[in-house]
Design brief:
With about 950 residues, the protein is α/β, with parallel strands linked by helices. It folds into four domains: about 280 residues, 3-Layer(aba) Sandwich (Rossmann fold), CATH 3.40.50; about 325 residues, P-loop containing nucleotide triphosphate hydrolases (Rossmann fold, 3-Layer(aba) Sandwich); about 170 residues, Domain 2, N(10)-formyltetrahydrofolate synthetase (2-Layer Sandwich), CATH 3.30.1510.10; about 80 residues, Formyltetrahydrofolate synthetase, domain 3. The chain is about 40% helix and about 15% strand. Strands 12, 13, 14, 15, 16, 17, 27, 28, 29, 30, 31 and 32 form a twelve-stranded mixed β-sheet that branches. Strands 1-11-8-7-5-6 form a six-stranded parallel β-sheet. A three-stranded parallel β-sheet has the order 3-2-4, sandwiched between helices. Helix 7 links the parallel strand 5 and strand 6. The chain is globular and about 110 Å long. One of its GO terms (molecular function) is ATP binding. It comes from Danaus plexippus plexippus. Its main location: cytoplasm. Homodimer.
Length: about 950
């Protein structure tokens, strides 16, 4: 008889054709996606080069991007492991192989190296985890390529493996052992033989299926083979052959010419198992890529919520927070589709998220966009943060939706003052709440450092210009270093703004040198203050320059709280790093003696600011009490700036939440300030379309607007707030009605969340809900998330889902083309209920200057009290027809808005008589923080 040849070449070609079609479909369904294989080679053995060329050719034929990473023979084990770690972490690499043997002069543990390849990218199937899976019959990992090819070739014969006697000669971890395991799990009865096996030729004669991988040329003779057996020859051995130009030829471990006379099927060498090894490598690579695609495109995250054990009545916030053990942030990151290279951990419970996520997911459609605002609050706050967290817990942990909360980083001002932190409260919190409220990952400090560097540099520049003549000043600004004198890139930008096209410092005329060197900042018109992240009333007005070394050049200035820095607003509104850099460059920091603006770029400081802020560009990942994700980023002052978290954090969250997910973000204060700025400033800058507005209301606040007594932090509530009083409540409902109307003017459905407090009665809560439904709310629900977590906000979650399913009719309140005064009036009339707007003569003059400088097309960011719809914090309810007085106006050119000042708005809060400082301490035995809320 003559055996049928099992052509590995033809089978491999068929497999590659199938893979090519699969890769094409991936590209069609996910534009820009391509499977990628990294082939790591140490040294340059020629036999390895031959194998690698075959792999590269097959990958190109299929459409796989294959990268050949050549490493020197001198590489150390540690360096090789570092390289593999980078490849493991890269979301762009789907498969990794390390070409063996390693051609290294250093001692390297090859087993350690193969185990260092992530089991999810181990397309060679050599990681111990994948080998162990195969041994247990679990084929969910990757099967070693040569053994998988052997099984495929056997199956292509049409002969069933089940019930057959199989003999494997060879027990290597690469071929012999895994192929024996595979045959076993195909229900063959398997005997493994090796160099120490006695009576080997007798054993092989029992085999219906014979797999030879012993590495000895033509060891198995025809007499060893059972007639009609299937023979798979895995060997490839060079033997002398004078008839060949090379003087040798390749043969297998089986005497092929004898085997074909006995066996029913036999593989040739070459052209048998070899091509199949490459084909199965390609198959594993495509499988790895498809698994990643499935992971990142599955509609619902594999999120594992944390169970709440609620207590009634709820204990303090910090007791609740400590009663829950957070999951490792790396686990949460994996659940929501992040890759290790995109996550920089700060301990085990928080991590910075790389902006590269936006590039990787650029073609991913984003989730639904929800803003959470409030009615006009009491000084105690009405629970916007708590409601935001309760909502996403309900959506994510209870309704099985992808749901992100995006929040601002809290300032230390309120934390150590009276209001406390901003992590939410009760059973709807961000954890660890101590980390959230104290420093977090240092972004506010980075903003403070950048802000104060600019202030220090500007004052120094003023001093040096006042104390130096033109020539020395220019020479010091453009010094000769090692015989070379040149402008820095940022100085070239200043020259261009000045209309000077020269690039050689020596070529400037005396007039041009003066023009370049002197900013001529007017010390009385410096707009840039220093900042500190504390409430410090004694820094509201200071005098600087009193040391004798400053030669009498003193000036009055002040400190602001750090979150009021324009740099914080710039971080919050930047769409990418380049946009942030341009905004920082354009910040107006002072006026010169001719009244012209001096920008940060004129001071040559933009690059330095970028360096200090580098880590602050990235949002921080945390979690709620129920283990759902939270992104925390930026904290712009809600009065002077727009009071919203960053555009970058929202965009990352929407991409990760995917098309059917939800991203809820908070806007500072009520709809008149926070929500209006969210829509007209933030959404205009980002281009993102909101789908729903949630407005948080409380019975307590509405009673205050109905004429109730003053609510003061640290003071017991008046009896009208803890007892049922429907008459007082009904008088204050007009404030809720105004906020509903405000939301509807932007074309988004308004959902009212009635945040239940312990003393509220059913009659009061229902009165609020019914009023809201009759006065334009899409839905109005009573929420008990403070006491019950996400379970207490299920009705709110359902209402938000229903609202987001409606087509969005979102529109801005005003076009940017309107005049500054018309935009201000539009906001005052539509959002506040004002009848007229009144300006001082000074403000009118400043508006003319803003128009002349081209700032009139910027958005408007009103600086107004949050305690009233009017400019007077003592006026409650929803008055109409009043006069709104603008007593100052300035531009935040980098942030991209004009700030009209309504009344006196302090950018530096003060500490009260009895701040939270008295209650806060560190337990030196346990290391825990005591007294924090």
């Amino acid at each position: 008889m003559s055996a049928q040849v099992i052509s590995g070449t033809q089978t491999a070609r068929s497999i590659e054709n199938d893979l090519r079609q699969q890769v094409a479909v991936m590209g069609q369904q996910h534009p820009g996606f391509q499977p990628k294989l990294a082939i790591v080679q140490v040294g340059g053995r020629e036999d390895s080069n031959v194998y690698i060329r075959a792999k590269l050719k097959a990958a190109e034929n299929i459409g796989i991007a294959a990268e050949h990473i050549k490493l020197p023979r001198e590489i150390s084990q540690a360096e090789l492991l570092t390289k593999l770690t980078a490849l493991n972490d890269s979301p762009l690499v789907h498969g990794i192989i390390v070409q063996m043997p390693l051609d290294s002069v250093e001692k390297i543990d090859s087993h350690l190296i193969t185990d260092a390849v992530s089991s999810q990218k181990d397309v060679d199937g050599l990681n111990t985890e994948n080998e162990g899976r195969v041994a247990l019959g679990d084929m969910s990992g990757f099967v070693s390529c040569t053994p998988a090819g052997c099984i495929e070739l056997i199956k292509r014969t049409g002969i069933s493996i089940e019930g057959k006697q199989a003999v494997v000669i060879g027990r290597s971890r690469i071929v012999g052992t895994p192929v024996a395991e595979l045959l076993k799990w195909e229900n063959a009865t398997v005997t493994v033989c090796h160099s120490k096996t006695k009576n080997l030729s007798e054993i092989t004669k029992t085999a219906d299926i014979l797999v030879v991988a012993i590495g000895k040329a033509e060891m198995v003779r025809g007499s060893w083979i059972k007639p009609g057996a299937v023979v798979i020859d895995c060997g490839i051995n060079p033997i002398p052959d004078t008839s060949k130009p090379s003087g040798r030829r390749l043969v297998g471990d089986v005497a092929y010419s004898e085997a074909v006379q006995v066996a029913s099927h036999v593989t040739p060498v070459p052209g048998g198992v070899g091509p199949m090894t490459v084909a199965m490598l390609m198959k594993n690579t495509v499988l790895a890529a498809s698994r990643q695609l499935q992971r990142i495109s599955t509609p619902v995250w594999p999120l594992q919520p944390l169970r709440l054990s609620t207590v009634s009545p709820p204990p303090s916030d910090i007791v609740i927070a400590r009663s829950q053990k957070p999951k490792y942030i790396s686990k949460l990151a994996e659940e929501i589709g992040l890759f290790p290279s995109e996550v920089s951990q700060y301990g085990n419970t928080k991590a910075k998220i790389s902006l590269s996520v936006l590039d990787r997911l650029r073609d991913q459609r984003g989730g639904k966009y929800i803003v959470v605002a409030g009615i006009t609050p009491t000084p105690l706050g009405e629970g916007k943060s708590t409601t935001l967290i309760g909502l996403v817990q309900a959506l994510g942990a209870h309704r099985g939706r992808n749901a992100f909360a995006v929040m601002r980083q809290p300032s230390q001002g309120p934390t150590f003052g009276v209001k406390g932190g901003a992590a939410g409260g009760g059973y709807s919190q961000v954890i660890p709440m101590e980390d959230f409220n104290l420093h977090l990952t240092g972004d506010i400090h980075a903003v403070s450092a950048a802000n104060n560097l600019l202030a220090a540099h500007m004052d120094a520049r003023i001093f040096h210009e006042l104390t130096q003549k033109d020539g020395p000043l220019y020479d010091r600004l453009v010094p000769e270093i090692k015989g070379v004198r040149k402008f820095s890139p940022i100085q070239l930008r200043r020259l261009k703004r000045l209309g000077i096209e020269k690039t050689d410092p020596n070529a400037l005329t005396p007039e041009e040198r003066v023009k370049f060197a002197r900013l001529n900042i007017d010390p009385k018109k410096v707009m840039w203050n220093r900042v500190v992240d504390l409430n410090d009333r004694y820094l509201r007005k200071i005098t600087i320059g009193q040391s004798p070394t400053e030669k009498g050049f003193t000036r009055e200035t002040s400190f602001d709280i750090a979150v009021a820095s324009e740099i914080m607003a710039v971080l919050a509104l930047g769409k990418d790093v380049n946009d942030i850099k341009e905004r920082l460059a354009n910040m107006v920091v002072a006026l010169d003696t001719n009244g012209k603006p001096v920008i940060a770029d004129d001071l040559g400081i933009t690059g330095a600011l970028m360096v200090l802020l580098k880590d602050a560009f990235e949002p921080t990942l945390m979690q709620t009490l129920e283990g759902t994700p939270v992104l925390v980023h930026t904290g712009p002052f809600a009065n002077i700036a727009h009071g919203c978290s960053s555009i970058l954090a929202d965009k990352i969250a929407m991409k990760l939440a995917r098309e059917n997910g939800y991203v809820a973000t908070e806007a500072g204060f009520g709809s008149d300030i926070g929500m209006e700025k969210f829509f007209d400033i933030k959404c205009r800058s980002s281009g993102d379309t909101p789908h729903c507005a949630v407005i948080v209301s409380t019975v307590r606040a509405l009673k205050m607007h109905g004429g109730g007594p003053t609510v003061s932090p640290g003071q017991p509530l008046h009896s009208v707030y803890v007892q049922e009083n429907l008459e007082l409540l009904s008088k204050g409902l007009c404030n809720l009605g105004k906020h509903i109307s405000n939301g509807n003017k932007f074309g988004v459905p308004v959902v009212i969340a009635v945040n239940k407090h312990g003393n509220d009665t059913e009659a009061e809560l229902n009165m609020v809900r019914e009023y809201a439904l009759k006065n334009g709310a899409f839905r109005a629900v009573i929420c008990d998330h403070w006491a019950k977590g996400g379970a207490g906000a299920l009705e709110l979650a359902d209402a938000v889902v229903e609202a987001c399913d409606r087509p969005s009719n979102f529109q801005y309140l005003y076009p940017l083309e309107m005049t500054i005064q018309d935009k201000i009036k539009k906001i005052a009339v539509e959002m506040y209920g004002a009848g007229t707007v009144e300006y001082t003569d000074v403000v009118l003059e400043k508006i003319k200057v803003l128009n002349d400088r081209g700032y009139d097309k910027l958005a408007i960011c009103m600086a107004k009290t949050s305690n009233s719809l009017t400019g007077d914090p003592s006026i409650k309810g929803a008055p109409t027809g009043f006069t709104l007085r603008i007593n100052d106006i300035f531009v935040s050119a980098g942030a991209g808005f004009i700030v009209p000042m309504v009344g006196e708005i302090s950018k530096m809060p003060g500490l009260p008589t009895r701040p939270s400082i008295y209650d806060i301490d560190l337990n030196t035995e346990t290391g825990e923080i005591d007294g924090l809320f």
